[in-house]
């Protein structure tokens, strides 16, 4: 076998949760409400960890990283500096023009009037931009700088609205403005038709104007693109102070060269767009707190990045199913959060495939369902969770007082007697020979030296777990630990006592038998009203009557006294419980007692009425009564089961 090693570059996963870890992470959620879809959703949200603590981040972690990245940008930059950058460039234009005029003063008497015009320029950048567009420059370099600034501002402010109109935005000749107006008129008409429920002819629009919108293949794509761009500009304006916002809006108007028709069409575009693609969730005010300076171009790019983060956050928050997750673009995650986060997304998308390949999930039509193997695994986990809280206490097999040729070997040994299974304890046998004959070799054995291990004869036991499924059990969070105990007992019997039988009876207004495999899916329903122990004991007695064994017991798990009983097969519910309900229930306890069925009750509440009722059950039946907290219920039930079934061979 050839093994290759390479240097770790930080991207390789040393370990990650396997299918067992993923199922374990879902186990409590599955048992809580029996809803696989909800459990998968919470797994996607929260991620999972393996026993060594290595984790698979969930969507909540990706959302946390997104919020952190966004806050880092807000804490770093000063958005108001974008206007200061424009102001600085305008000052450079004015200073260049002033210097050019001063050089020409000796030969041009009219130049003095130009200096006065420069002195009369408004102090604010929007006013200066407006007046300089009307100004007849003397200095060519100043004119070049100003035209370059205009082109840059038009691209930065208008191109987000009109992607692809680069040439028109740079030159803005009368013909360009006319073409721009025609395009906006057709676009507004198309959006208006879509808002009315029609299907506009996008292909005709694309045939004429497609070169202005590269990469756009459908009207939906165009609407989404324009909505993003408009939202970015509106978010930029909303994130500025009122004074800064007014300056930027005035600049945008002046950049349209006072073309009222073009201005009206752009305003109409914003209104038509809002009708087909509401902008409220895209438009956002950002609170910038930093000191780093930005140009307007950098500010626009930053708003684009923040908008992409917001859109990704909305998509992640909408994820409910693995199919929703498959629609998240890994490239968008990588762009916003880096390659490692994109890898985490891919790993999340593989969760259901892992569980399916491990045999824990299977598809039933278009739905995912738990397999029997998954339910057995959940039961094993419930058993492991219970015994993880216990001190070392060896769980043995059942033992009987009678001895026979079969059974399991015990840890203790005894002198061999005729008829005993010859399970030789070599150590004790040799020690007996040494004690008898003294030290020295060879060690000579006599028949009386032989010692063999004791054996324990296995017996059968039949058990019914009676689970209280009343509303109080579910509302008080007691049904989940009760279900976990039933599953753990199922796993214990399946693994340690395979000859035993286990039945599960759920009772509330009525009583029903459930297979252990149904436990994870059990949830509250309309019949979960009342506590009909009478019906539960009746059904448990009928089930145990079919078992041909001497050891029969009922394990009752409840949080309240009986509040319902059967009359002619129909449930009668009373609260507070009536004397007849108590009497009918105790009569069924007496029937169980006559048939040799032991009732062990585990109370999850210590109310006086419940304590008094359970004490009466124990008096009649000679069973045991325990009070257990939800956290310790499993220890009480399972350890009691094992200890009650273990009898030492004399």
User: Which sequence of strands runs across the widest sheet?
Assistant: 9-8-7-10-13-14
Radius of gyration: 41 Å
Class based on secondary structure composition and strand pairing: alpha/beta
User: DSSP strand (E) fraction?
Assistant: 5-15%
- Taken from the alpha-carbon principal axes, the silhouette is elongated
In a few lines, what is going on in this structure?
This protein has helices at 19-33, 36-46, 59-76, 81-104, 111-119, 125-132, 140-158, 166-171, 174-195, 202-209, 219-238, 242-255, 260-276, 296-317, 322-326, 330-337, 339-349, 351-357, 372-388, 426-437, 471-475, 479-496, 533-545, 579-594, 608-621, 633-645; strands at residues 48-49, 55-56, 361-364, 367-370, 408-415, 451-456, 461-468, 501-507, 511-514, 551-558, 564-567, 570-573, 597-603, 625-627. The protein is α/β, with parallel strands linked by helices. Helix 1 (19-33) packs across helix 2, helix 4 (81-104) runs antiparallel to helix 7 and helix 6 packs parallel to helix 12 (242-255).
